[in-house]
Write a structure and sequence with these properties.
There is one protein chain. This protein is α/β, with parallel strands linked by helices. The protein has two domains: about 160 residues, D-Maltodextrin-Binding Protein, domain 2; about 100 residues, D-Maltodextrin-Binding Protein, domain 2. It has twelve helices and eleven strands. The strands form two sheets. Strands 2-1-3-10-4-11 form a six-stranded mixed sheet, with helices on both faces. Strands 7-6-8-5-9 form a five-stranded mixed sheet. The N terminus is likely disordered.
């Protein structure tokens, strides 16, 4: 009789014990350093976003964040690594359109954006078409006219991912043809432009900002409808009659299978970090275009944007054969 009572009490206590274990997991996380995987090299927009966030990680996560670079395949190498890492909340991914919008639609990679959960979008900046300061084109109109009369003659540097898709759309809208020279990041494309190895570069604004301020390169146009506050005289794609909604964003992700309690904690911590005045100030100094969007809201936007970019890739004939 006593054995039956003991067994009955034991089995009745199992749900309570499981609840305690789950609660304990949520309470103790994180217990060690959090690693952020970057599919591009140092100095790019992903790197700068991690640096911006990291200054407040100890304050809001209770742990430090370290960044590991796993560059390759236009950022896809980093996403592949995180997709295979343990879904324990200790391996995050910093990524942009290249990894989630372009790579799965331009090539065959073993993941899609649906394999990840969004923590937070942290920045957004337009793309720009830029040339050397002493280039013969003083305006975007002069550049387009020259390119129309010389199809395929001019070379442009960009990544093989989101930069490539944006540049191809720009060419389609402008009715011009440029020759693409792929680079492993936007920074290397700007360096190649400075070395006169290419005629122009299609990059995000943070990559072009320092050299434009130094007077070494000229911005001919930026994407979107809002002018850059530091370059108010540079026309937008809307100014020249183009419907061009693509801007370059970056944000943080975890594997979809990450426990809900850990995802909730990360989203809450990132919201606090992104609302911290020190983080905002650092991001502004880096000219990152600090732009926080909560994870759940951002997931809805990503789904719509991915469908738009996929349709664009198909329209332009860029999908893998």
């Amino acid at each position: 009789m006593k054995a039956k009572i003991f067994l009955g009490l034991f089995f009745l206590s199992i749900p309570f014990l499981l609840l305690q274990i789950e609660f304990s997991s949520a309470e103790n996380y994180p217990e060690k350093t959090i690693e952020v995987i970057n599919g591009f090299g140092p100095g790019g927009i992903n790197d700068l976003n991690v640096r911006m966030i990291s200054i407040a990680s100890q304050k809001y996560l209770g742990q430090t964040m370290i960044q590991s670079f796993r560059a390759g395949a236009s950022g896809a190498a980093g996403a592949i690594y995180v997709a295979k890492a343990p879904a324990d909340g200790y391996t995050l991914l910093i990524a942009g359109q290249g990894e989630f919008m372009a790579a799965p639609n331009l090539s065959k990679v073993p993941y899609t954006y649906k394999d990840f959960k969004c923590i937070a979008k942290t920045s957004a900046k337009p793309f720009t078409l830029c040339v050397l300061k002493d280039a013969p084109w003083q305006s975007i109109e002069e550049f387009i006219n020259y390119a129309r009369n010389n199809p395929g003659k001019l070379t442009y540097g960009s990544t093989a991912g989101s930069g490539f898709v944006g540049a191809e759309k720009f060419q389609d809208d402008a009715k011009i043809k440029l020759t693409h020279v792929p680079f492993p990041g936007f920074g290397p494309a700007v360096i190649a432009l400075l070395g006169k190895h290419i005629d122009c570069a299609w990059v995000n604004m943070p990559a072009a900002d320092a050299q434009a301020r130094a007077g070494k390169i000229r911005l001919l146009v930026i994407t979107g409808s809002n002018p850059e506050k530091d370059f108010p005289n540079v026309p937008t794609t809307k100014n020249i009659g183009m419907d061009f909604p693509i801007v370059h964003w970056a944000g943080f992700f975890v594997r979809r299978e990450t426990p809900p309690d850990k995802l909730k904690f990360l989203r809450s911590a990132f919201e606090k970090m992104m609302r911290d005045p020190e983080v905002f100030s650092i991001g502004e100094k880096m000219n990152l275009g600090v732009d926080y969007t909560p994870g759940e809201e951002w997931e809805q936007s990503i789904a719509k944007e991915e469908a738009m970019i996929r349709s664009l890739i198909i329209k332009l004939g860029l999908q893998p054969k």
